[in-house]
Amino acid sequence: MADKLTVHIILNSHLDPVWLWRKAQGADEVLNTARTACEIIDDYPEVHITRGEAWFYDVIRRIDPKLFARIQRAVKRGRWHIVGGWWIQPDCNLPSAESFIQQGKIAQAFFKKYFGTTASVGYNVDSFGHAATLPDFYRANGIDSYIMMRPGTNEKTLPANLFTWESPSGKRITTCRINSYATTGGLNQIENNIKGAIAFADTRVGHVPCFVGVGDHGGGPARAEIDWVLSHLHYAPDVELVISHPRAFFDAVKASGAALPVIKDELQYHAVGCYSVVHDVKQRMRRAEHIAMQAEHIIGNVYGKARTGAAQKLSDAWRHIAFNQFHDILAGSSIKPAYDDAFDELGAASSACRDIIVDVTRREMLTLKRSDAQRLVFFNTSKTDFDGYMECEPWLGYRWTGEQKSFTLVDENSSEIPYQIIPADAAFHVLRIMLRLAVPAGKKRIVTVRLSDPSAISPDVRRSDNALSTAGLTAALSKHGLSSLVSGSSGFIRDEGIRVEIYEDPTDTWSHGIHSYDTKPAGVFTASVAWPVNHEGPLRISMKNELQFGSSSLSWMVYCNAGETAVHMRLRLHWHEKQRIAKLIIPFNAKAAVREDGIPGGIIARQCDGREYPLHNTLSLSGDGRTLTAVSRDIFAADVASDGAMRLTLVRSPYYAHHNPFKVEANHDYPLTDQGVHEYEITLIPSSSVDRKTIDAEVLRQTEPIWMTETTAGMGHR
Prior knowledge:
Elements: E1 5-11, H1 23-43, E2 49-51, H2 54-63, H3 65-76, E3 80-82, H4 97-115, E4 121-124, H5 134-140, E5 145-148, E6 162-166, E7 172-177, H6 187-200, E8 207-212, H7 223-230, E9 239-243, H8 246-256, E10 262-263, H9 279-302, H10 310-323, H11 327-330, H12 336-365, E11 374-379, E12 386-392, E13 408-410, E14 419-421, E15 433-439, E16 444-450, E17 462-464, E18 467-470, E19 473-478, E20 481-487, E21 490-491, E22 498-504, E23 523-524, E24 526-527, E25 533-536, E26 540-549, E27 552-561, E28 567-575, E29 580-587, E30 594-599, E31 602-605, E32 613-614, E33 618-623, E34 626-631, E35 637-640, E36 645-652, E37 676-687, H13 692-703, E38 707-711
Parallel strand pairs: 1-8, 1-9, 2-3, 4-5, 5-7, 6-10
Antiparallel strand pairs: 6-7, 11-16, 11-38, 12-15, 13-16, 14-15, 17-18, 18-19, 19-20, 20-21, 20-22, 22-23, 22-29, 24-26, 25-26, 26-27, 27-28, 28-37, 29-36, 30-31, 30-33, 32-35, 33-34, 34-37, 35-36
């Protein structure tokens, strides 16, 4: 036990670039905060300033070069300390693994270029929980220590607030949970923060951090606060205050030689509503991430035919993506106008990456030998081999002008490829087909179109009234959804069936104060007619129905593909409910002994305890010799009840940026979140055990689709 406790006073200014204001006002915060901090450094020779987020510095670099130069000099003199190592303080649950890596890659390169150094302390004091895999991403970017605050002591019990955090892969970072990151309440809060820090302290270590500074909208640490600290350095006979910074604190922890407890867990939970609210920004983010990954791979490792400037376009795209992973943007807790900006930037990022992919693939087409036959060329821009179904709309002429000509698809060896015509995107005479093809990672496959009758295909999918089946699976449908799912001789769902239930949700945007949505259902989406056939062929049968609840409607398609033991669902939800939440209920027909959830860059075991958790692509339940896995890039939160009911959160609609205890009066004009159309693709995979190969293949299909190009000598048939 240390003789004295040293409280490291860390002068900082918490800054949300977007929250109850838009990004432009966030830039004002940055400039005001930085200017004040530089003036304080000039006036107080004993002061150290701590500041994270590369975006903060980039704003100053672009707008006020003189101020940026002052910060560079302060960093060089050891008075200004860069922490974080990421572009922004992101949501730490929802981004992909690659996004976390890019956060560090872009930020650390920026710090090295402009300051000659990099951050070694991670810093996410306001993020709403932390994925178990974060130590992996931090270690990959030179970070060995971490400061966080949420979940607080009332939300997660830890053996100590200073600990070694170990990821499932074994990577470790020294982590400190703090009691507060700012002193916006004035001088009284300084002493409250100090008392809180003392209560948080590990007496064996003898060191604890305490954050001081005015948060949000500029100003930094106020002079009155600094004067108070300097006049109370000898705080108590056994407590000393020192003006410090995070690196100095963690160095002191290491020097103490104290053995810290090891935590092998995710740091959850806080603000469970943020896992699902403003579904649109989460969905756009996921799609932007994956198209950026494809662009990254295609220009770095595949064809090498990107135009000059493509790398910069990609870097700019990743910066847009990284910024909009900020915890109050991606978590859905900002004002509605802020999402206009976010959607613009995510759209710009996706568009830039799409241009890169289109350029590179079309340049690759120039290497093909001339042919009068129409060819469809399929590019796998991912790092993983692809073998599965894909859909495309090749141009075979104006199909509304006369007799439709039959055609055959053949591969590079003239072997015929089965295909099926399916409904097109346009409500018009346009051709859309599905086919199955294997495309190695970073490679292409060439399919030739021949004007001849295709060979007959023995059907592997069948239907009866309100049921679809393949060789290994049967799914029966009901007025609420799916009434049964049988694979082999095992039934995978209970008699109550798969359905979409609606619950009242009076909580604020964050769902502060709760950990689950376990109230009695307000209702269930219901169809008024039997399920009609949507389309039917030897490779796929789909059935589709329209279901209703209240002011909302649900277009629900269910389909099965030949050669697969899986049920695919496409949901188009027209949501017009107020302060309600919709969940897809999948009642697993076994005691769920094991639950495995996807998280960024990994899988984690969780309890079937009814708590709402963030979700990344997959959720598997296993018990009684069977496993049921749900795969969806469009679902970001779920709970599993103690009876094994998997409950995927589709949408919830509180008021934008509503924070308790603010009371929403009856005559108001506050907008509700998530009104309008939401689309989901969800695949259910029944198996005897967790089939990771099949699961990963379905994740790949949903998140990194194959890109198709087509060419003839002059477009059209010869």
